[in-house]
Amino acid sequence: MAARVLVVDDDPDIRFLLGVTLPFSEEGGLEVVGEAKSGEESIRLIEELEPDLVLMDVMMPNMTGIEATRRIKQRFPHVRVVGFSAGGDDGHNEMLQAGAEAVFDKATVADLAEALEALAR
């Protein structure tokens, strides 16, 4: 059974890219079940869609991925969160402290896909 993934990013192009490149349900056991454009929306969608994994942008307006991850882990401790950022180490440590399993640069999508597949097993 494929692990259900929710993709969260304020950039629609990034959401589209990840939504297209991550569905490895045949090979790697991942199925993108939804997309959210904000931390607030991600929390609502987790309740509705019941994903196993959340791919969370670290820096978003209003509620950052760090705060969203903190709230997700408090409310849905079984949901695994993987953070990703546009570059550098901005927010990486804070994301891990909030409960993320790992944090990746958006430039390393192949590494990200591999890590998500490993978590799905």
Model description:
This protein is an alpha/beta fold. Helices cover 42% and strands 23% of the residues. It has helices at 12-21, 39-49, 65-75, 92-98, 109-120; strands at 3-8, 30-36, 53-57, 80-85, 102-105. Strand 4, helix 4 (92-98) and strand 5 (102-105) form a beta-alpha-beta unit. Helix 2 (39-49) runs parallel beside helix 3 and helix 3 (65-75) runs parallel beside helix 4 (92-98). The radius of gyration is 13 Å and the shape is globular. The model has no long low-confidence stretch (mean pLDDT 85).
Describe this protein with a few key phrases:
121 residues; alpha/beta; five-stranded parallel sheet
Question: Summed up, what is this model?
Answer:
By secondary structure, the protein is an alpha/beta fold.
- Reading the helices and strands in chain order gives EHEHEHEHEH
The residue ranges in which pLDDT falls below 50 over 5 or more consecutive positions are none
As a whole number of angstroms, the C-alpha radius of gyration is: 13 Å
Major beta-sheet overview: 5 strands, parallel
What percent of residues adopt helix (DSSP H or I)?
Answer: 40-55%
Q: Number of DSSP strands?
A: 5
Structural class: alpha/beta
Number of helices: 5
Kindly estimate the percentage of residues that lie in beta strands according to DSSP: 15-25%
Distance between the termini: 10 Å
**Coarse morphology:** globular
Round the mean pLDDT to the nearest integer and report it: 85
Oligomeric assembly: single chain
Give the spatial strand order of the biggest sheet: 2-1-3-4-5
